[in-house]
Batch of 2 targets.
Target 1
Amino acid sequence: MSATAVHSLWTTTAAASVNDGIDKIDAPNIEYGQLAPTLIVIGAAVIGVLIEAFVPRKSRYYAQLFVAVVALAAAFAAVVALAAGGYGTTKARIAAMGAIAVDGPALFLQGTILLAGMVAIFTFAERRLDPVAHGNRVDSFVAQAGAVPGSPGEQAATKAGFATTEVFPLALFAIGGMLVFPSANDLLTFFIALEVFSLPLYLLCALARRKRLMSQEAAVKYFLLGAFASAFTLFGIALIYGYAGSVSYGTVAKVVDGTITTVDPALAGTMGNDALLLIGSAMIVMGLLFKVGAVPFHMWTPDVYQGAPTPVTGFMAAATKVAAFGALLRLLYVVLPGLRWDWRPVMYGVAVITMLGGAIVAITQTDIKRLLAYSSIAHAGFILAGVIATTEDGVSSVLFYLGAYSFVTIGAFAVVTLVRDAGGEATHLSKWAGLGRRSPLVAAVFAVFLLAFAGIPLTSGFSGKFAVFKAAAEGGAGALVVVGVISSAIAAFFYIRVIVLMFFSEPKADGPTVAVPSPLTMTAIGVGVAVTLVLGVAPQYFLDLAGQSGVFVR
Amino acid sequence: MDTENLIALLVAAPLLGAAVLLCGGRRLDRVGHWIGTALAAVSFVIGLVLFTDMLGKGAEDRSLHQHLFSWIPVEGFQADVAFQLDQLSVTFVLLISGVGTLIHLYSIGYMEHDERRRRFFGYLNLFLAAMLLLVLADNYLLLYVGWEGVGLASYLLIGFWQHKPSAATAAKKAFLVNRVGDMGLSIAIMLMFTTFGTFAFEPVLEATGETSEGKLTAIGLMLLLAACGKSAQVPLQSWLGDAMEGPTPVSALIHAATMVTAGVYLIVRSGEIFNGAPDAQLAVTVVGAVTLLFGAIVGCAKDDIKKALAGSTMSQIGYMILAAGLGPIGYVFAIMHLVTHGFFKAGLFLGAGSVMHGMNDEVDMRKYGGLRKYMPVTFVTFGLGYLAIIGFPGLSGFFSKDKIIEAAFAKGGTEGWILGSVALLGAAITAYYMTRVMLLTFFGEKRWQPDAEGNAPHPHESPKSMTIPMILLAFGSVFAGGFFSVGDRFMHWLEPVTHHDHGDSPLSAATVTGATMVVLVIGVTLAWLQYGRRPVPVVAPRGSLLTRAARRDLLQDDFNHVVLVRGGEHLTRSLVYVDHTLVDGVVNGTAASVGGLSGRLRKLQNGYARSYAVSMFGGAAVLIAATLLMRAV
């Protein structure tokens, strides 16, 4: 090859690439208005990081709390404005160059996540429960995350009045990721959102003030297993790309149902290979089942729920579940409806063992946080029953269930933070004996939450369970409903057992005390009770709202 | 003012009385009985106004309707509070409020020394309101409300002296037995709703023509069950005798004149249903015939004056039920006998109450005797009632009972002969036991003794507030039957509602009347031979097997005990056994196995992240394999 030729090749390529680049790279078209909820929360999280860097230590707590609450309120207002503007129904569309869907389910779930996040932030900010340490009020989080547990450094940090106010921006980042997760409209956005909300959660789990070793162990387990699950998900995404030649939900769906046959000639060897599709989708679904805590991917749940600081547990249990189920719904209803006859039986089996497994193992638990963890596993099974309905009613029933469930969960974990003894929270069930005699109000509130978990009428748990079971039965999964009802009966046993323990047992002499919380936790619990009762007594408005939000944009 | 707007006031007046008296507290103790009596009288006066207004109209315009409000307005299920006043219900209204007012008046004297008199009048007013609601309702559901209401009032009044264990037990018994009948009524109403889609009288009764006989028979039998409970007919008769534990005015009003006739009202009101169901009709006549003999036989053996009268009530209602079961031949006479019976039986009970009032509440007739000298007014009024009930020519009972016996023969065929003969036999027994009551109480030697504390009774005539109602009722006993029968007045009055059919009697009216007279004389003579001619022992002789059985109410309670109570206990015990061993075994076994499973599964949760990861990996493998397998299948 002559030099000229080489040169010409070089220059041609260079010129072509330069010219092509100038011609082809368009400024992406970003609909900032429609993405406002997410942008506000992520922006506030960045501001939170800056506060950590520049605001004096003494003022950080107030500044962080203020920013977080304002951001969540503003983001919720943005969601309401979008919904009022018709983006949930008639104007539903796909924004940000096909990356984000703005539709009914997305807005409903974002609203739920934001409200649940707000309530959770209140419990994060609670500083009146732990005894005052060295003249400083302390919250549930460790003074300095980097200090070795029990070391002089940790004591020095406590003495100096340090506080891990980073939890606020961490929580905001997590919420930001959760907002994107159920509205992601391509597999890459989906994966990035998954990581954006998972990583802060791993960190948050490690930050408990008491029982730090347990907390760190939980965080490590959660991180390792989460990374393992993410690897599966990512591998699944790669396989799907190999099958469809695209990561866009819409395109993959069209390839699955055969509307499009070829996208990229380079992938001609793999495109349309059903093995890739089936294995890939199973792997992605597995990642999601891990996040919602479905059997057999649930084993992290009890350990992490028990070890994490209780406010974080409440937040995770509520918001993560909402986001992950939202993403699962979109994946199954938008990307894989053409594969319905393949995934339905599999999910059917997962739902059955999740409901039964969660309920059965919960019976022998002796720690209240582990008990609630297994309860959350059983509830994941109930929600899966709604997912399996594969009807519009199925979607709206799941949306309603998630909304109802998340407030009960945060409220229940908030009550757990109140019952304390010398070692911090008294989570062993035997300590709760006779609580109803000593603190009738707290015990009564907790009983309301337990009844809601059990699905007793006049609580939101009943309305939600009724909605998903009805949808499942109408969707042709009658046998699943029977299993669901049996699991509910088993689950009712251990919920009622706690109520019996609280109200009909003699209090122990060295029993725990019930701390009087600040208005922050009171608000969190109050909102939980109010939502539980309103959705139980007069659920129609919210059922209608969920019903109107049941259609995915494609 | 339109007269139909008055109908609601009929019910409202005593209801108001009940509310005021029961909620008013102690301060009404001094005037409560007058309030109660006055409001009962208000109902009677309104009833009279409506009655005279009705007389002024043509036969076809006489049915009035008043729609008060919609009770349960659900699509496809319309329950209205609406009233219907026609010839049939106005007859009942006058009987209930008229006799009711008289008995209120009587109770003022009778209950004078009872410190809970205000409450007693409150219950009486409650009863009147419920009973008027029962006969005025224009649909079966509202009728059911009244039906339950009278049951409640009856329960409260039988057990009014609740400090007596016997009264409390009797009240409970009446309530329980009535529940069986009430179940029949509720099932009948449900059947009506599924068959006709409504339970208002008019649409239901008009639609009977297009309904299958099977359904009508089912509804009819359920209505008969209801009637058996309320009207103390075999097999649900056992409560009536014990119900005499209540104060005597209650026995007179509720357990003789009005409430126990509700079953007759129900059957006559539902005549169209029974007309279309001959099998149900046959059952009605059989129940009536059996009960009229049953009650009469029991009445012969009782020494307790009120229980003897209770047996008689049962028997007389048996006549009415028999007549109602004859269909259009008998409806009119059932109601006519009901009204005349209301007069003379209420009078007889009030007379019995008057006797007890003078005899320190002694009820054993063997300890009476010769009372005619001490209680002349009671003797005369009771005597007129006696003549009326045995059917002495010219008195009320003669006309009404005679007609029923004729109608029974007119049923035709073998059935007619059997029913007619039973009715005749019943008339003979009636004459016998009523003569016995009369002779034991008012004739012969005085047989009362000082009791254990040395208090000898001093028989005396009762106060005016008690004798005046007795006198007024005696007028009814004497003249009502004749008044009704002249020119078949009563028949023409009721005919537009119940219709009438003369039937085809194998015997002439004169023959039947003659036969009735013959059996009447036989009955009276037998009683006189046994109780009039020779002294009566104070302690009852042992008597024949039948007598002893009859004294025990023909073993009704023994039968119920052996068959129902023991049977029920056995059933319960075996169910408890099954529950303990099988159900609890399964439940506890399930719980134990779930718990065991839980303990074993819990061990999988060992805390090692590596084993969690393995389980996840295994899960993912299974998930993928299952997904692929689904495609392969």
Target 2
Amino acid sequence: MTAVMEKADAQPKTGEIPSFDVTIKVRRFNPEGDAAGESYWDEFHITAYGTDRVLDALHKIKWEHDGSLTFRRSCAHGVCGSDAMRINGRNRLACKTLLKDVNPGKPILVEPIKGLPVVKDLVVDMEPFFASYREIMPFLITTGNEPTKERIQSAEQRERFDDTTKCILCAACTSSCPVFWTDGQYFGPAAIVNAHRFIFDSRDEGAQQRLEILNDKEGVWRCRTTFNCTEACPRGIEVTKAIQEVKRAMITRAF
Amino acid sequence: MITHQYDVVIVGAGGAGMRAALESSKEARTAVISKLYPTRSHTGAAQGGMCASLANVEEDNWEWHTFDTVKGGDYLVDQDAAEIMAKEAIDAVFDLERMGLPFNRTPEGRIDQRRFGGHTRNHGEAAVRRACYAADRTGHMILQTLYQNCVKQDVEFFNEFYVLDLITDRDLATEDVEEGAEVNATGVVAYDLATGEIHVFQAKAIVFATGGAGKIFKTTSNAHTLTGDGMALAYRRGLPLEDMEFFQFHPTGLAGLGILLSEAARGEGGILRNADGERFMERYAPTIKDLAPRDIVARSMANEVREGRGAGPNKDYVLLDLTHLEPAHIDAKLPDITEFARTYLGIEPYTEPVPVYPTAHYAMGGVPTNVAGEVLRNGHDVVKGLYAAGEVACVSVHGSNRLGTNSLLDINVFGKRSGRSAAAYAKTASFIDLPENPAAMVEAQLTELRERPDGERIADIRRALQETMDANAQVFRTGESLNQALSDIRELRKRYRGASVQDKGKMFNTDLLEAVELGFLLDIAEVTVVGALNRKESRGGHYREDYPDRDDANYMQHTMAYRRPTAAADEADGHIAGYFDHVEEFDGYKVVLGSKTVTQTRYEPMERKY
């Protein structure tokens, strides 16, 4: 199976993975050096294979063409949330997006996610994003004595918030939200998703406090239901639905 | 240079680091230094579960769990540590549940449990349901829950800081420090990726929780960032590494990519088949078949391929068959891994079997510790104020082969113990003065790398390293293949000294850090191969085709590998005379192998059959 990383020979052999050429246009930004502070498009031509992801293409550029190309990545299979970026105008994880699926006949455009300050190339400052997350009290709040064993929770109660436990804090949703782009104070979808995860957890007793936080002028009511977040979520979380459920809970105080 | 002072500094913010932080930050002023945002750590990639003998769904007890762990590790497990882990597993799971972890539930609302490889009822009778889980994202939920609780407890993090040196008051790498003498850990040197600034952290206690080193191999389930940093830093400072020749190859990596598909797929009923559709594990492990421990399944798969029964156009993988399972069951229990098959290979697991092949997964070895998490500098002396937990450490609960789910357990049990030990020690200890310029070595190293004139690319050397490790030190090893790997590594070390980085900037220079990480990988690969060459037997994850049997008479010992100056004595500290004395000379230093006794309590070594 080593064929994945090898150069294609002129004559394809049995079982060999076919290759194709692709152009990647990357939005670059360097905070220091000759072009400090300028943002510009940089173009690279590489040979790729059918199973290659956008992350593989970025690595190929960094490792074979330009070592200064900068991006975050870690697990490379869509669970750590490091490499959310705008690919052909849509927020995705680079490690979960196959080149063959993003129209490789034309140049593939790769940009940093929007609404957060760019640090270098595809790296943005995630601190404002995590600050919003921390504000909604993303932890189980309980009162009374701890049980000696586990708390009891039915499979149905567990299912109620299953979808929002999948969040990997990649910021693909929040940085796809037009409200967040124009108003960085807005909590954003990811923080609300993580509030949802606790508000609807039968073991939690902090829902009222979280709802008060999100009832703020920068809270859930800023959501315009554009569904960008749901489309952007690489974990398939129904983000907009979760936000709607939090809005409803705020009115009915039932959760 | 910026300096900080904390009672406890924890290096690494995965499961072990954050579990330690939750303990120590209650008692002592604690900083967590991590090269990633905590939620990016690779604990989050663990899927299947965390074993504890809760007996929520069928009869079980911690003694059976201990036995399975010892047998699974082919008797190289320290049995006192395994017993502690199996006993404390129960509270570790309840701790997580009380912190908010959303475990799957039984119809009664208790924590549900499922089967996992090597975990059995009554000493091997049949598979037992012992793994507590949250769908197939148990590690994700553990990482999130621990991070959430760190937020709740206001734990202080230094994110995207790379620790590049460990400071001790005696230099074990160059001095000949006698046995029994006091050695203290006094701080660490870190590099802030965002700014390029050097930070020195003085601490009374330091916990290493930096994870594994899977990137010494090409085909691996590990993240790009798992480059053995903590192991290599300790090793360079003269501390031994224990049992590094034992590396686990997880049977079911997505073929060609190495992406992990949880053993839970087999725990939920999935079957491995060869090209003929045969359930070949019936031949290798007649009792528990597909749920045999990972070393056995991985070897069986590789053997099927070698004997020409592999599937696919190149006959180079086998098939994981889930097609007989109900789609609803797959969706409920294995949603993530089936999506991996769809996303990366375009395979629909409802109807098609998934191509799989072993993938480098887990280092059983690491920085030696005792059960309190204290780091050992030889067979018995601890380094005061230095602790390690998780994959970076070797306590040793995994012996020569870790059972599935026992790593999530390890990070919780020994993460907690290390955090507690570190905080308790910090309360009684005082700060020890750092050397005059503690960051000198790191600054020189980085400057040299940055200013080196144009040379070979770091990525080319790393690829060559990973390729030789895959070809020569993987599931099957021989003296010849390992010697080949070792001579390749020696050559790559020379090339590394002439390699250069292209990014010369200060801010967010990942090119520079990849170069530093390659240095760690070379050290870890080298010590892994030297250990494997010396161990002329087959045990657990280490299989020598030229020595296919386990040899308890000569090798029922932990390997302790030390890097020493060429001029130093050849005898390893605390070594036990015998077959283990082995010295491998390199350019400017040598690797000296000693041994450490395996702690045996209840279980006499037996032949390992499943």
